[in-house]
Fold:
Amino acid sequence: MTGSGTTGSRWPRTFPEGRALQEALRRRVRIQPFRGRIRRIAGCDVSFERAYGKLFAAVVVFRWPGLEPVEMATAVGEADFPYVPGYLSFREGPVLEKAYEKLERRPNLVIFDGQGIAHPRRFGLASHLGVVWRVPSVGCAKTRLVGTARDPGIRKGDWTPLRDGREVIGSVLRTRDRVKPVFVSPGHRIDHRGARRVVLEATTRYRLPEPIRAAHREVNVLRRAWIARFRPDLWRG
Structure:
């Protein structure tokens, strides 16, 4: 299956095809210091409506460093790929791509609610879409997919390395004092230090970076509006 628009990405329907594509595309991942200047940063999120098998995606773009929203795009898609840890990009990627392609002002960096290289094959959602969209990307997940780490200190900015064996694959980062940490990993064209810095600077009063929080709000608004319009029998108010 071939994606539409400018990206030309493929979205497999089976696990063997998905794994083979991950193994092929992960060779393009570049973990390196961020180059250039961030002018716009985006956050991505997806919500799933189980009752009708629909996925709702939002990409919200902010001006950087002021975190002023400048553009938002949404999309609705089918949940064609099952939810299985390690294969999230094949479930959420197609609908996120539909939203991303609607943007008139593309971001210089994207934060995903998911993993970058902190992934069994070092190719999570942030790495996959960073490579496909050719944009620097960061994964900021609420839970760990793979690896081990000590708990960081209790203050904002404290962190410990997330390791898989001897390899450092991410950071366990405290974004608020005495609040559960997040799991940050570079996706593409950024390094560990840069990923932590971006996440911290994009976080305001809450645990998650503001671009992700904004995208989360938008997908929930979209989902509720879709249900009210097309499936009022599912509407819960």
User: Anything to note?
Assistant: Strands lie at 40-49, 54-63, 68-78, 109-112, 137-141, 159-164, 167-173, 182-188. Residues 33-234 form a domain with the archaeoglobus fulgidus dsm 4304 fold fold (CATH 3.30.2170.10). The CA atoms of residues 29 and 131 lie 6 Å apart. The helical segments are 15-25, 88-100, 125-133, 192-201, 210-230.
